[in-house]
Each structure stands twice: as structure tokens, then as C-alpha cells.
Amino acid sequence: MPLQYNEYYNEQTGLTIGLKKLLFSKQSEYQLVEVYETDTWGNLMTIDGMVMLSERDEFVYHEMISHVAMFTHPKPERVLIIGGGDGGTAREVLKHPSIQQVDMVEIDKTVVEASKLHFPGVGDFNNPKLNVLYEDGIAYVKNMKKPYDVIIIDGSDPVGPAEGLFEKDFYQFCLKALTPEGVLTAQTESPWVESYYPSMKKVFSALDDLFPISKMYLNYIPLYPAGMWSMACASRSEDPLGDGVLQRAESAQNILSALSYYNPDVHRGAFALPNFVKKIIQ
Amino acid sequence: MPLQYNEYYNEQTGLTIGLKKLLFSKQSEYQLVEVYETDTWGNLMTIDGMVMLSERDEFVYHEMISHVAMFTHPKPERVLIIGGGDGGTAREVLKHPSIQQVDMVEIDKTVVEASKLHFPGVGDFNNPKLNVLYEDGIAYVKNMKKPYDVIIIDGSDPVGPAEGLFEKDFYQFCLKALTPEGVLTAQTESPWVESYYPSMKKVFSALDDLFPISKMYLNYIPLYPAGMWSMACASRSEDPLGDGVLQRAESAQNILSALSYYNPDVHRGAFALPNFVKKIIQ
Q1: Which residues in chain A have their CB less than 8 angstroms from residue B1's CB?
Q2: What is the phi/psi pair of residue B265, to 5°?
Q3: pLDDT value of residue B22
């Protein structure tokens, strides 16, 4: 085992993480899933050499991909998560008392297996409202039977099995799979990694074509390339910065008091985009 | 020369930057100043093994440490920069037409020398309104003769010569060196690096004691530890989120149109602190 994990996002530039032990390594039908014990980030999951989450920083990604959509929708009852095999997104969604059912469609059982073994604080897999399906998320959305209030696209980078999650066809299926007030969020890569600009442009131009409301928002994820991460929020009718959204969040003190990143100020502030970021998707 | 520059902020975890060439290396009276040509970040300056700036990402730090204070003050004419030897902060300050004089007090001439040679787009050293002094910033503020509208503490990390820039005594001198409407900003390290928490707490508790208004704000700097960077803004009378500040910024389209990071939305959004960040300085 190497002593350090390296992920380069621009030639020889990237992140280095000190390692203590390899805990899990399995080549699934789709990808190589590995878990390391690290020096200061707790356990770390990587897929095909890309950081997915660490125990120490996972709260940022999971809170921000979930609660922005969950508070934007006036009363989310049915939620679909595409990907999200580590369980962290479902854990956050399940904190909302209006929830009746969360369907998590993860293509690769190995991710869930690794999470159950090595990220005990991340998944809430025994929650009776959580329904885990091991299927292709794109096919699932295409054939969806009953629409969802919130759809969260929690896939990995636009290479390998997650590539289709950045295509317009897929977002067209998502639109049909949402209730009229439905809200969609997706992870959309780092604004500092130029090789992902084409995927980012593709996603935001598709969302812009399909949804009357579509916005990018940002959050700081230390173990993702360059530490700045973008996400998308789209809806036919619900504006994530609309009247009532932040008040709704503000009044949910039972949820907010246990969070480490998200709060109503952060929700609003995350949609403030630096000029160079706006240019990427213009 | 190594092929990669490594800066570890938590044991063996940190940043790795691909290098092409060593361009400058000088042990000054105070510190080791080096400049490398990198793979994808242009030229990179390091001091005692800590990243100071790269040509590609310097705009974030320099715009955010300058324009927040410059728009918070109703009409900044006299500005003091402590440190800031690369010249980038002065360059941003000088974009404001109300400016009459900028005094930059840099302890180490070597930093200015390296910048003039290898960061031609960063400094605006020939600007007649800029007055560069090679002195100890703390002593300078202590003996200040005519007060300033804005003071910007643009020092390096709280080890070595910049240590005193994190002490309460120093901020007491700053308070005296400010006009009644004066505004101070300072760089205050990464909220993900626990070893800097004592310094961060010390600064914010000092500012809180001394200034009626003092707030933390954040920005994303890819080549600084963990990519999330904090800054402080403090004043006797001017609230960086007060009425008029954002309108003042909004109306300065001649300045805004040439910026890559700062805009009035980003100004406001930067003050939205994630819960875990608030806890550090509570």
C-alpha cells in the first residue's frame, strides 16, 4: 500500500492524503472501490482513483446536496436519490419529518457494502423509510411509475458509469419523474478543473432549456479537486431563493441544530457565484 | 529541484503542485522566498514552504481582501497595507478612484523583488499613488502619524515574522491608526486546519473586544490549505453588510467589470458561515 493517496486534477497538481491502512479493495462489475484509513480524515472511500468521501468532511457534500432541495420544496414526501451508495444523502433527507419514502437507486452494490463496513456514521440503512435498489439510475428514471417531490443526482464524475448523468436526455426523464412542484439537485464538479467544463456547460444548458428555474450553487469540500464544488438546483415552479424557502428552513430548528454546514444563510450565500464561475456556464 | 511541491497542513495531507522550473530562491534576513514555474498555475511563490500565491488563483485572495473593505468604507482615500509584498492587494485597492495614497509596509524586500521579476501581472509598483516602505508593519502602525481609512493585514501564516499580526496588541494599534469610519481587513487562515484554531480565536476575540463591528468572511482559494480561507472585517461604525455597502459596490461598474471573483452577491454571501466555522471562533 502506498503511504499517500494522490489525486491529480490538473497534470501533476492535486491532493495528497496521508494513509495508515488499506481497509477495503474490490473491483466490482463497474469500478474499483477502495477504503483507506487516513491520517486526519477518518476513513476515505475512493472509486477508480477519485475521492468520494472521508468521514471528516462528508457532512459538507451531503448536507448541501440534500437540504437545499429539501427546503426549496414546500413539503417533500417522496425522494429519489440516483447513486448515493454511501448513504449520506439519504441520511440527511431522512431528517425531514415530511418524508414518507426515499428510493435510493445505486448501480453498484459494492459501494453500499463498503459504506456499511467502514462508514458506520454515514448510512442510515436500517431506516424503514429507505428503499435501496441496485439498478441503473438512468433506466429507473426513464421507467419511473410514480413521480417524486425531490430527485437528487448523487453520482460520481462524468467518466465511467456516471457519464450518462451529465446528458440532457437524462434530465428530460428527470423532469417527467418530478411532481409539478418537484425540485432536482445534482453535483456538477469543480469550477477549477477545466477538463470538466464541457460537462458542466452541458448540464446547465440542459437544465436551463428544460426547467423554468435552474441555478448553480457552491460549497467548500476540502478533499474534492481545488476545494470548490458546484451543484445544480432546478424546478418548474420552486425558486431555491424564493420567498418562504429561507423562512421554512429557519423554522426547522430541530433539523438545523444537528447540522455542521448548512444553515439558511449558507443556503442563500451558496448561490452567490464569483464572476469566473458564472462565465463557465454562460 | 523536486518535480512536485508539497505543502502538508495535516500530518501527511495537503496539496501537491506539479513543477517545471525553479525560477527564484533567496534566503532573506527573515525567510526563504522561492518562485517556481508550475504545470497549470503559472508561477508560484512560496515562503518557508508555504504557498503565498500563484498567477492563476491570486485574484481570489487579492480581490477578497481588498474590495470588501474598500466598498464597506464610504470613501476610502488613504489605505495602509501591512505585508502584501507581492503587490496584488495594492493593485486591487488602486482600482478605486477615491484613493489618494496607498502605503504598503512590507518587512521583506525580497518578496517585492521576486514579484517584480516573476509576477509581472500582480504588482502595480509604478503607480504614483503607491508608496512602498520596507519596515516592520507592527512598529509602523504603533508609530503611525496620520490615520487611515482602510488597513489591510496581508501577512503570511502565524509562524515566523507574521506571528505578531495575530496578537491583540497589534489590533489595538490598528484601531488607533484608523479614522472614525475606518475599516480593517485581515487574512485569518483556514477553518480546516486545527493547528491554526488558537490564532483564529485570538484574532476574532481581540477584534470583538476592540471593534463594535467585527465579522468573519470566507473565500475559496484552491492553493491554500483545504481550499477554504477566512478573513476578518472590523470597524467602529461601518458594517460590511450594512445599508448602502452593496449598492455602493453595485454602482461601481467600472471596477466590477474587470474583476474575476468579487461582486456584490459574493460580498454578501461570503459572510454566511457554515456551522462548524462559527464554532471555531465562538
Answers
A1: none
A2: -65, -45
A3: 97
